[in-house]
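Recall that a protein's primary structure is simply its ordered list of amino acids. Everything else, from secondary elements to tertiary packing, is in principle encoded there. The following example makes that idea concrete.
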Amino acid sequence: MNELTLAWHDAGQNKTQKISDQQPSKNPGSVRIGRDSVRCDILMSDLTVSGLHVEIFFNEQQKCFYIRNLRPSNPPIIDGQQLLNGEVALSQGSTIYLGQLQLTVTTVVIPSISSVPPTILTHQLASSVTQPPQLPAAQTQKSYGLMCAKCHQISPYEQLDFGCPWCGTSLAAAVSALINPHPNSQ
């Protein structure tokens, strides 16, 4: 089962909540967060949080949890970036501000995507040293990958489980690009 855990401090208490891709919800397929008990699955009491603020859902094709803004006039801030419309991928350590309330993604468990221990993957994503993905030595044919919209690096399809290996940005909206098997021959 795919699972994400959120942690926050609200009404003088530390709180945590697990979100699963298979859990029952008031809006099937997503978990909604806000102050409105009729429309939301996870309730906040902070008055800077909208009645219906965001929803979190699991994208089966991308094998990743995403957050979607449901309140354009009070957009959430995800990892320092305002989310005006659309959605953005969440990963372990992501910080979410709903109004003035801070939530943190403390864990993400997606069993089917990798056998590499999560601590190694987190370290690789957080590393400030940007090492490009290694292509197999025998690869001489043209191959394609996805170009990151943020850092414009091209990642081979085989290495996309956790977003861009350089900056960690989701590649859900990335464009397909040709990978040059011989980078020194232009």
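The chain has one helix and 14 strands. Residues 118-126 form the longest helix (9 residues).
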